[in-house]
């Protein structure tokens, strides 16, 4: 049996040629054994029908085994030749035949240096794609944040529009002047609160420094 690795043929046929040859060999052997058993049974029946036969069943079986060994030796010699011709002419793929997935390699052949260059370019493109993907994610996050800021800004503008409307209804047309008046009023209130707080603290200090008056206690008569 040939031990030559026929990888391309195995890929093409989807089975190894050696396995195919082995199955053919086993099939021939099984058929040969079955035929010899049939012949042995026929000979035994003929001998049983003959009167005065001195040949026993053991002798017939011994002769059958000798004949089987002789046939096996001749068959193995013939099968080796048949195997070589089958592997060479039937189960081999000519050098000009390519699989469909290998035709692209024949059409776009390249050297080892070109392959390494293409591999480097591929890795560079992969890094660029990854960087662009990360940048896209950052931009989307920033866009979402801008949408939230815009929504808050629209709420603020709506609030200012309502405030301006209230100012106009109360006779104050300029919203800027209204804010200025509110700011001044707030400052005045803060100053008044500070002034009251200081007076309150001063009163506490003055009250603590006064001499306490002791009431006179009348003596009993």
TrEMBL record:
One Gene Ontology term, aspect cellular component: nucleus
Signal peptide: none
Location of this chain's protein in the cell: Chromosome, Centromere, Kinetochore
InterPro entries: Centromere_Mis12
Domain of life where this protein originates: Eukaryota
Predominant place of localization: nucleus
Ion transport listed as a keyword: no
GO biological process assignments: cell division; mitotic cell cycle
Stated name of the protein: Protein MIS12 homolog
Source organism of the structure: Xenopus tropicalis
Gene: LOC549562
């Amino acid at each position: 049996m040939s031990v030559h690795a026929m990888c391309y043929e195995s890929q093409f046929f989807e089975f190894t040629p050696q396995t195919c040859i082995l199955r053919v060999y086993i099939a021939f052997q099984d058929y040969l054994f079955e035929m010899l058993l049939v012949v042995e049974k026929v000979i035994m029946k003929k001998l049983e029908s003959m009167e005065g036969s001195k040949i026993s069943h053991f002798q017939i079986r011994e002769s059958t085994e000798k004949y089987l060994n002789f046939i096996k030796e001749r068959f193995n010699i013939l099968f080796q030749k048949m195997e070589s011709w089958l592997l060479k002419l039937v189960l081999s793929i000519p050098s000009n035949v390519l699989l469909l997935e290998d035709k692209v390699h024949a059409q776009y052949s390249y050297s080892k240096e070109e392959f390494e260059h293409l591999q480097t370019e591929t890795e560079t493109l992969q890094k660029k794609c990854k960087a662009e993907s990360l940048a896209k994610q950052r931009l989307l996050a920033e866009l979402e944040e801008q949408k939230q800021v815009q929504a808050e800004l629209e709420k603020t503008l709506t609030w200012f529009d309502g405030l301006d409307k209230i100012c106009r209804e109360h006779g104050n047309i300029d919203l800027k002047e209204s804010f200025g008046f509110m700011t001044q009023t707030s400052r005045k209130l803060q100053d008044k609160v500070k002034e009251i707080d200081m007076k309150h603290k001063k009163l506490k200090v003055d009250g603590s420094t006064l001499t306490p008056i002791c009431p006179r206690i009348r003596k009993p008569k």
